[in-house]
Each structure stands twice: as C-alpha cells, then as structure tokens.
Design brief:
By secondary structure, the chain is of the alpha/beta class. The protein has four helices and eight strands; from the N terminus they run βαβαβββαβββα. The chain has helices at about 10-25, 45-50, 100-115, 175-185; strands spanning about 5, 35-40, 60-70, 70-80, 90-100, 120-130, 140-145, 170. A six-stranded mixed beta sheet has the order 4-3-2-5-6-7, sandwiched between helices. Strands 1-8 form a two-stranded antiparallel sheet. The longest helix is centred in the N-terminal third of the chain and has 18 residues, at about 10-25. The chain is globular. The structure holds inosinic acid and magnesium ion. Magnesium ion (MG) binds near residues 41 and 96.
C-alpha cells in the first residue's frame, strides 16, 4: 500500500500560498526576477508554482545530480547550467526536496560566485529537517518532514520512475521490488 504524504489538493494549496508570499517578497525588485527550477525533481513544482506568479518573471533551469537509488552520493554533478544573466537580479531556486542539504549548499554557492545575483531565495516543496549534514537557510517550504522516508511522485523518482505520479507518497517493500525489476528489465 502507498502511504500518501502530500495529495494533489495539498500540493496546489502549498503552491498558492508560496506564490502569494513570493509575490509580496518580490514586489519591490527593480529587475525582473529569475525563477530557477532544479531539474528534474522540481519539474512539476516549478510549473505549478510559477504559473501562479502574477508578475513578470523569467524562467530558467539547472540540472544537477547527487542521488543514486534512494541514497545521496554526497557529491554533486552539474549536468546543465542555467543560461540567463542573473547579475543584479533576485534568483529564486525552486527545489523538490532538501535532504542532506549538500545539493542546495552547492547550488547557492555556485550561483552566488558565478552569477553575482542581487539575492538568492531558496524555495523547496519538502524540507527533511532532520536529515541535514550541511546547514541550509530555506526561505519557503511547502511541507516540513520530521521523518526521513524516501518519497516518490510529483517529480520525485525512484530509479527515474514515477516522476509523473500527481501526488507524493511512500512506497511499500513490494512496490520497491517491482520498480527495481522494471528499471532493470524494461
Ligand atoms: P540532498 O543533496 O541530500 O539535500 O538531496 C537533494 C536531492 O536528492 C533532491 O533534490 C532530490 O532530487 C533528491 N532526493 C532527496 N530526497 C529524496 C526523496 O525522498 N525522494 C526522491 N528524491 C530525493
Ligand atoms: Mg532535486
């Protein structure tokens, strides 16, 4: 049985709330802010959040990878860099989940040093607060999680599968085995 952690209504409610807060937060920016989706995990959240922003914004994406299966490898690879000139602009990093904090720590440092933005705002759908090995300041989060369960759905994958499921859940042992088989054999 799947244990649902965040259903479609809850996800949309979180997007609405965060978009409203960000709209106020960004109201006085002189330059158009850049929303930066962290691919592929933030794909769905990025679109649902940004389509609620009722102001001019730019969209770009960056792709990194640090996870293999259900474990963070601890080293981050940059797979696709952003293209936008972010100098002097607010950059809003949109992530699916902050777990150990290693990826977000890498991203904020990388963007700060390479692009010299006006400021960086960190937004994540999920914050696994008890999993941190590196401290991270999160500005907006959809849901704080006290438990360190591995989640699937709405962008979050297991072996690249089930990013397209419209809600977020914890799979049971049988589903892990099925997905492992599927990923290995299809
Ligand atoms: P961190 O570097 O340990 O904070 O991990 C961040 C990245 O690992 C996230 O952007 C996700 O892509 C992935 N990740 C962390 N926890 C989960 C999970 O529960 N399910 C799927 N992916 C996860
Ligand atoms: Mg991610």
């Amino acid at each position: 049985m799947r244990k649902i952690v965040f259903n479609e209504t809850e996800i949309q409610g979180a997007c609405e709330r965060i978009a409203n807060e960000l709209t106020k937060d960004l109201a006085n920016d002189e330059k158009i802010p850049v929303f930066l989706g962290v691919m592929k995990g933030a794909l769905n959240f990025f679109m649902d959040l940004t389509k609620r922003m009722e102001m001019p914004i730019y969209l770009d994406y960056i792709q990194i990878s640090s996870y293999e299966g259900t474990k963070s490898t601890g080293n981050v690879k940059l797979l696709h860099d952003l293209r936008f000139d972010c100098e002097g602009r607010t950059v809003i990093i949109v992530e699916d989940i902050v777990d150990t904090g290693v990826s977000m720590n890498y991203l904020t440092k990388y963007i700060q040093e390479k692009y010299n933005p006006k400021r960086i705002i960190v937004v994540t759908l999920f914050d696994k607060i008890n999993a941190r090995t590196v401290p991270i300041k999160i500005d907006y989060s959809g849901k704080v999680l006290a438990q360190n369960d591995f989640l699937i759905g709405y962008g979050l994958d297991y072996k690249e599968l089930h990013r397209n499921v419209p809600y977020v859940y914890i799979p049971d042992e049988d589903e892990y085995n099925e997905l492992t088989d599927l990923a290995n054999n299809s």
